[in-house]
Amino acid sequence: MSFKDVEIKQEYRSFNDNMVEDFYYPLLSKAKLYERAVGFFSSTALIEISKGISGLVENGGKIRLIASPKLSGEDVEAIEKGLQQRKSVITNSINKAILEPENEYEERRLDLLANLVAANVLEIKIAVVENEAGIGMYHEKMGLLYDYEENIVAFSGSMNESTTAFSYNMENIDVYKSWEGESERQRVMNKKVNFDAMWNDYEPHIRIMDFPEASREKLFEYRKSSEIDLSLDRKEDWNQSENNGRKELKEGPAFPEWFSIRDYQKSAIQQWEINNYIGIFDMATGTGKTLTGLSAVVRLYQHVRKGLAIFIVCPYQHLVSQWVEDIESFNIKPVICHSASPQKHWASRLKDACMALEFGASDYMCGIFTNATYSSKKVQNIIEDVKDKALLLVDEAHNFGAEKLSKCLDEKIPYRLALSATLERHGDSAGTEKLFNYFKNKCIEYSLKDAIENDMLVRYYYHPVVVSFESEELNDYLELTKKIGKLILGNKKKEISDQAKMLLIKRARLVAAARQKVDALVDEMKDYMEENHILVYCGATTMKDIDYKEGKPLEEEKRQIDIVMKRLGLELNMKVAKFTSEEDAQKREILKREFDEGESIQALIAIRCLDEGVNIPSIRKAFILASSTNPKEYIQRRGRVLRKCPGKKYADIYDFIMSPIPLDRVDSYNESIVKMSASLVKREIERMKDFAALAENSSEADEIIYELMDKYQINYLDEEEFYE
Asked: Which class is 3-243 in CATH?
């Protein structure tokens, strides 16, 4: 039972040594007392401390732990008001740091720890620094191990007992033995004296308090029985937890073994470095924006080496989920920050990570946020103190030109990277200017054309399907157009009033909900009733539908997506499913899997949630019932359809083109009506030209374009029609 029987190194480094197997386990198995002072108290730190202690407990040994509560500025102010406040604030801080276990392994560890505390095997005391400068946090990290022959091993260094320290950060400890010469013995005794002084509360400027009773009770909630279960220290258990499934860990953010960076990605990152790590990656959907962005993170970390905060922001929760998998493959452990985060108490985790970075306890931290979460006051307050050492990486960065989000483009952040295939904001020059002022120059422009030519995306065939208004719809369209014209053309500054905006939205919904679109979709789909991997984009609008009750026709207002679902499902007997914001993340994953398999789902019917970031590469045919005049929308939609998939050689895109008047009747309408209708046709033609330019069958669209231009006498786009 002697430490002298163990081979003990002078130094242990987390990526060269297995800290648990090489250091803690062999020494704790021979120890009678383990004394540890750590930086911050948390349940995750307790879990890590519990690794390898079975031998100590079986020896009848004990553990003494000193830790500091994580105090905010408000907490410090409250403590300074008096003793009663101190106890309450510290107890609240500790209770917040006792987090719900995330898996069965953590549940069993917390059960063990609670039983060790109950049996007085584990004693915990809380340290707070008090000096002339005010209240501070105790942040020393050292440990002492005693065997039954009165030998002592002391260690100190950057290691915190946490999963991050053991598995992800480059940490090291220096080790001293009481039997190895006078110099080492003196070092050991100095640490012993220091620990004893703190434990017994006579260390100057450090106040020690017992572990709060309320915190003991909260910890005891995780007791499943009164039995101390030491079976957790089987090697396969703690090795699995420590390595977290990784075979070999590198220091901090690092390239995965499977990843091979492409020349255009390398060129983009090099330009970003030249621009002092500020810039824009303008890359088409499907060309590896995410991996290029994470590769840039690795290069920045290699440059900074220590003290890097990484903030990654995405528009939606489902995009965060997609990013997390890639982030972790680059050896980065992110704090997942949004209302439905799988990480409980994510705000506390984020606060801990920022504090650890600020105090030098970790070399980097990473938080991934939705737009809404990142722009919240709570998050901005938490990350404020580490912004001066941060990288802000924004996916689908065009969104940050909006008024609220643009306020989060903090000049204090030194490193910036915008990812977007469409950074220019349609109809919002001020928002676009904000983005370019903040993210500066484009480091790469990798277009859809480049991606198709370089075999990053599949080639496609483009099929325009011309539809028209019914007479009642045409009258409504013309009436709205007259009202809009009066409001806008009467304004010399050409500014669009709120009233005009509402009318424009109403007119756009009318176009999206034209009844002929669904009829035309059903006709086109009859040729593909037995096929699968089909996507239908609907408008976020309602339309009139005929239903029958008691054998009588009844006209009802229904959502376009519901009408499409009914007609494809009932009329054509196809297996269809909705893919909208109403389906939660778990349901969407099931839908994606079933769609990929092609057995239980032939077609997905979507609205807008597929526009940004959702990856369903198996889509082979897309039917677009509604498109706005915003190029961002239809460029993104096209990119979704062109993603590569095994066995997918090309894609087909059916685009429902609006001609307000049936083509064979345009000549029968007076000139003013044709002219009012022509403005919509011109916008449709612009999209058709864009789609046709890269299509394999551009002549099919060209014929329709020429016919529309001839019928509507279109030769140019004047200023007034631009505003319409």
From this structure: alpha beta
